Amino acid sequence: MPGLDTKIHLDMLRDFKRRMPLPLRLVRAIKRELFNPDIYGLEWGDPEVVAPLGYLRDRFLVPYIRPDRVALEIGPGGGRWTRYMLTAQQLYVVDFHQELLDQLARRFKKPNMVFVHNGGDDFPKVPDHSVDFLFSFGVFVHLDPEIIGRYLANMHRVLKPGADVVLQYADQTKDMAKGNPGFSDNDPERMRALVTNAGFKIVEEDLTTLWHSSVIRFQA
Ligand SMILES: C[S@@+](CC[C@H](N)C(=O)[O-])C[C@H]1O[C@@H](n2cnc3c(N)ncnc32)[C@H](O)[C@@H]1O
Asked: Does the beta carbon of 139 sit less than 6 angstroms from any atom of ligand 1?
């Protein structure tokens, strides 16, 4: 641990000033506006900017997106995470609200994308045992365990054997979840039970990166 005479803090400030002079910051802001216009949802945190979200993207999303694999996202919203899934062989974007799918289509519309308007817990139009990777963020945090259970049961039909599933869910053991009225009554113990009772094998959990929720990865 450095002592009080350390220059570490002054060095960090000087380094910041050297790397980020005002003209450079302005150029970056203009580039961002021109080439990466607003995506609905970035106000909840941009994985490009917010380190914990970037970490989750790199650990739980990017490694599973491959040109020879089929991916499915539940509740894509404005595409905050969808933008990292576009290189999948085929990408099903499944949402309960047509308006959100329309918003997504305005920003992202690629030949490999299939837009699916669902009934809140199912996968219409998605062929049996066709999906290699299923991802959802910002959705299951709002779903009651009963609906999560129905979703999990319905996943079996569309997932290939051994497919990976990554879900972020509300974690009421964390203070920031308790204070959020939109978050459902869920926690790691309940989520583990839901996942295993549905017949899946839990592979990995992240209980620490997020301040109001947790992440679970399991396999079909
Ligand atoms: C809070 S937004 C999150 C969007 C995006 N995943 C993100 O993290 O920025 C929730 C999204 O899930 C959709 N949604 C809500 N309930 C759903 C359900 N039961 N099944 C599928 N989509 C749902 C909403 O329409 C919306 O697109």
From this structure: yes
